[in-house]
Each structure stands twice: as structure tokens, then as C-alpha cells.
Amino acid sequence: MDQASGPGEAGPGQGGTPPGAGSTGASAGVSADRVEQLLLGHAPHLTRIEVSERAGVPLELARELWRLLGFADTADDDVAFTEADVEALRLSAELTGLGVLGQDSQAALVRTWGRSFARLAEWQTTLLARVAAEHAAGEAGADGDPADPAGTVEAMAALVAEVLPRVEQLQTYAWKRHLAGASSRLLALSDQAASAGPDAPGETVLPQAVCFVDIVGFTSRSKSLREAELVAWIEEFEHVSSSVVVERGGRVIKNIGDEVLLVADDVATAAEIALEMLRRGDDPDDGFPAVRAGVAYGDVVLRLGDVLGPTVNIAARLTSLARPGTVLVDERAHERLVALDAERDRAAYTFRRPQRASVKGYSRLQPWVLRRA
Predict the structure, then answer these.
(1) Is 315 exposed, middle or buried (0-12, 13-18, 19+ CB in 10 A)?
(2) Residue-level pLDDT at 24
(3) Contact, 322 vs 328, CB < 8 A?
(4) Nearest partner of 48 among 3, 87, 86, judged by Cα
(5) Helices (H), strands (E): how many in the chain?
(6) DSSP H or E run through 117
(7) What is the distance between the alpha carbons of residues 186 and 167, in angstroms, rounded to a whole number?
(8) Is the pTM of this model over 0.85?
(9) By CB neighbour count within 10 A (0-12 exposed, 13-18 middle, 19+ buried), where does 308 fall?
(10) How many CB atoms lie within 10 A of CB 56?
């Protein structure tokens, strides 16, 4: 197994260049090493055993945290780590001592961190590589020579040095703002919160309106699009749907291909979001695709940024039942919307009750077709 070179050791592009490697490969290797060093703060020079000893953490725990974070597997004596890994392991031990990373939450929380940051890193790296390639191509064009991979990697190394501090600050800012918002919502709803019970220690159960919005005819449309067009179409759907959700006070939980899952603290907010997306999808002058939606209201388990429970399942089943361009709501959501109309002494919505439906897990589900009055 090749080992990353430590300080003073022969690395890619130096004495350790593989036989037969040309100057382009050597140059790219040096630039790639520089990118890694810029990101990690140092060139890898520690083994996992050394990291564990310096952090004062058992080696088995170090292995487990590395695995949960989704990093590539390495042997205990591979030179693949830096002082940043020592500090991360030490911080993990401190969080464990404070009870934040307890036995009941450590695996799930760390695994969620790993998955989230892995996806973010993949997207950011792809973006930086594209910008670097365009920059390298521009430089090569000015010189009259075709761009080569080494030039792209060199441009990427320069971009990392320029961009990384700014991205890091923005990510910290976004995280803190979302943390503040989540804390405020939880405190505002604390009188409604209940313990999820012994099967889900540390989780929170709150009444929420859950909504799925699904693109109509996604499969047939996607077959006619090239890859770039498909990506652009989905990105536009995610952008517009996220804007509609946030502007009306909802929260996007996740996008699942051609579908978006969102929640709101009250049914009216979820209903307005769904109806607005339907309106945009029905407008021939709007590029937003035709959609259908399902809304359910009830207790929801909030877990690591996701939502779980029967209410989520019912919303998903309603979406699968909904005809193109319609919103279906469940019995509890219907009751609350009717009560809201009565309180305002005006009808904001109309309802039509179709026949009860039999879907997986729910043999007599009663949907209601929701429309604006």
C-alpha cells in the first residue's frame, strides 16, 4: 500500500515518483499534495496509532469515529493523518465527556456529520474543479497550447488557497444561523414537546404538518433529456421549491430526486406552500414542472435533521394517490383547516372527499382534495 509522504520523505513528483511517470504526472502530484496540505493544514505525517496516543483516546474509538465519518479505510500504521486529526479526536473525547456524544447518539450523529459533509465536499470539489479547468483552458488558450491536467490541478491549488477561508467562514455563519433558528423553534414549541420514549432516547416529538411535493411525469421527461439538462432541471426545481418553502415559513427537510419533503409548524402554512407550487406548475409560462402533493398533520419524531413517524408515511401515501395538479390532505389536516376557516369566518379553502383509499400500511385512509376557495 502506498503511504502518504511525511516531512522530508520522498513524495509524488519527488524521489518517490513511480518509474515511467512523466513530468506532467509529477507536476500534478506536487500540486495535488499542495491542495491536500492547504486543506488539512499540514502534509500527512502521523499514523492512526500516533494520533490516538497524542489525543489520549483508545485506538478502537479512533477507528470507529474514522469509519462513522465515512473516510477511506487505512491501516493503523499508514502515514495518513495530521495534527488536525489529533485535535478532532481530542474534541470528540471532550464531547463524549460532556454527554453530547453519548452511547445512544454517537454513531448516528457522527455518521450524519460524515454523510452531510461528504456530499457538500463532493459538490464543492466539482465546482472548484470546473472553475479551475476553465481558468487553465483560458491560460492555455492565451499561450496557444492546449490545457493539460497539471495546469488544472495547479489552478485548483491556487483557488483553494483563495477560496477556502471565505467558504469556511460562510459555512460557519450558515450553521450558526440555522442553529439559532432551530433553537428558537424548539423553545417556542417546548410546551408541546414530549419525550419519544425509551426506544428513541434524546429525540423530540412535535406536532408538525408534513408535505411531499412530487414532479408529475418525471420518468418520461427525464428520458428525453441529456445529463446536463436533467441536472439543470432538477436544480431549478430544488431552487424554486426551496424558495417557496422558506418564503412562506416552512422548512425543507430534504430533496429526494424528483420530490421535496418539507414541514411546517401549522397546516395552513404547508397547505399554502403546496398550493403555490401547484399554481406555478399549472402556469404554462412558468418553467416550474407540474406537481402533485400530499399533506398530513400529527406528531413527528425530529431526528438528526430528518422527520420520522406515521405522519410522514401518510403524507407520502397521499402524494402517491394524488392526481397531477392536486393536493391531498389527511383527516387531521382537513379538520384543522376547516377549524381555521371557522375562526376567520371566511372560507379560504374548499374540500372534496373522494372514496377511502387502501395503501400500504393504511387500509382505510381518508384523503381530502384541497383547493383554494
Answers:
(1) buried
(2) 46
(3) yes
(4) 86
(5) 11, 11
(6) helix 106-143
(7) 28
(8) no
(9) middle
(10) 10
In whole angstroms, how large is the CA radius of gyration of the chain?
A: 26
Cα–Cα distance, 9 to 22 (Å, whole number): 20
pLDDT in tens, 244-278: 999 999 999 999 889 999 999 999 999 999 999 99
Short-list 311, 224, 319, CA closest to 277: 319
- Find all residues with CB under 8 Å of 324, minimum gap 6, and list them: 216, 217, 290, 291, 292
d(CA 322, CA 328): 6
Task: Locate 240 and state its grid cell.
Answer: 424554486
User: From CA 313, how far away is CA 298, in angstroms rounded?
Assistant: 11
Name the residue with cell 383554494: 372
d(CA 353, CA 369): 6
Q: So what's the pLDDT on residue 253?
A: 93
Which of these, 38, 34, 39, 30, lies nearest to 11 by C-alpha position? 30
CA within 13 Å, CB half, 355: 4
Rounded CA gap, 345 and 366, in Å? 26
Q: How would you label 201-234 residue by residue, b for 16+ Cβ within 10 Å and e otherwise? A: eebbbbbbbbbbbbbbebeeebeeeeeeeeeebb
- pLDDT for 216-235, tens place per residue? 999 888 888 898 888 888 98
pLDDT of residue 19 exceeding 70, the answer is no
Q: What mean pLDDT comes out for the span 62-85?
A: 82
The three-class DSSP label of residue 142 is helix
Residue 210: beta bridge partners? 263, 296
**Residue 4 and residue 44 in contact, taking contact as beta carbons nearer than 8 Å:** yes
Given CA atoms 224, 226, 231, 236 in this order, what sign does their dihedral have? negative
Q: Which three cell numbers stand for residue 28?
A: 500534478
Q: Rounded to the nearest 5°, which phi and psi values hold at 351?
A: -135, 145
CB atoms within 10 A of CB 287: 12
The DSSP letter of residue 290 is: P
Place of cell 402556469: 283
Please tell me the distance from the alpha carbon of residue 208 to that of residue 329, in angstroms, as a whole number: 13
User: Are 90 and 55 spatial neighbours (Cβ–Cβ below 8 Å)?
Assistant: yes
Quote the CA–CA distance of 50 and 76 in Å, as a whole number. 9
